[in-house]
């Protein structure tokens, strides 16, 4: 086994899954109830019958790989994560293809980011093999929960937390890794329609040397108050600026951002250490470049975008992430500005990128970059 990033070959997957002891529930959800839940899943509200789990002890390393009944965790009130937020997570999806096979998208990238996040939060790294093995073991156990509707998928949420009951401030000597699964439809209740964005002037998500490029719960906790402020200002989502100069676009509460100019070039904030390195973000950069378009990762001044919206040189803005896929932005507002993006409708490139990406993920288009991995 290795902790460095590598591709898991189809013939290796069986051995990785076999490491997980499946302790199936004797109270599975009745078929009719499951079918009802699958018919119109609202994001993150319904969970499958099982969860994958691996425990870590400082003296023994990772042990007890299993798939067990989904259910509440019993935690000592002194459990370290409840006090110091030593926690990380990932977001992935399992997609059902027309022939009934089930696939996931670039899991090695999520595994590598999970290991980077673990390092930043002083948590132990889970191997790529265990990460992918746990996901495949869970999906195979709860295969009946993978929805097959348009834009539906089984959302996978691997996470790791400090489980040691100890109030001293130091890396925990006991850690739990789990993966849970939730059948989902579109992330936004209204489906794929443009969202409005409020640019926060008062709050930042992350600063230099902080945890901005780690996928840790604390970053999302810090986004909740500004997100509420966005909603109070009539917007759906918040966008953060850099903490040093308060002038460059960084990212939304849970999504990366792209700006399309009238010369056809596509721009996204460069990775400065305080922005999450999105798997969807990097895939879009690749797909857009494949079409011969110029893609630019750079510092993007808010001022430039606001001026571009006013004079029409900014043609499209979109947000992206595993959960939200590619979501058009129809309005950008802040303390001193409020602009509709072009005519407020989903942009042409935005929707083309969304279609191309989802066609690959759902097996409707050739996987020319070798991004898909069969789970079942
Ligand atoms: C994802 O896109 O999967 C994420 O983890 C973001 C989360 C806010 C839903």
TrEMBL record:
Record-stated family: Belongs to the class-IV pyridoxal-phosphate-dependent aminotransferase family.
Catalytic reactions of this protein: L-valine + 2-oxoglutarate = 3-methyl-2-oxobutanoate + L-glutamate; L-leucine + 2-oxoglutarate = 4-methyl-2-oxopentanoate + L-glutamate; L-isoleucine + 2-oxoglutarate = (S)-3-methyl-2-oxopentanoate + L-glutamate
Originating organism: Isoptericola haloaureus
Entries under SUPFAM superfamilies matching the protein: D-aminoacid aminotransferase-like PLP-dependent enzymes
Pfam families in the cross-refs: Aminotran_4
EC number(s) given by UniProt: 2.6.1.42
Cofactor requirement: pyridoxal 5'-phosphate
Keyword annotations from UniProtKB, A to Z: Amino-acid biosynthesis, Aminotransferase, Branched-chain amino acid biosynthesis, Pyridoxal phosphate, Transferase
InterPro entries in alphabetical order: Aminotrans_IV, Aminotrans_IV_CS, Aminotransferase-like, B_amino_transII, BCAT-like_C, BCAT-like_N, BCAT_family
Name of the protein this chain belongs to: Branched-chain-amino-acid aminotransferase
Pathway: Amino-acid biosynthesis; L-valine biosynthesis; L-valine from pyruvate: step 4/4; Amino-acid biosynthesis; L-leucine biosynthesis; L-leucine from 3-methyl-2-oxobutanoate: step 4/4; Amino-acid biosynthesis; L-isoleucine biosynthesis; L-isoleucine from 2-oxobutanoate: step 4/4
One function term, GO molecular function aspect: branched-chain-amino-acid transaminase activity
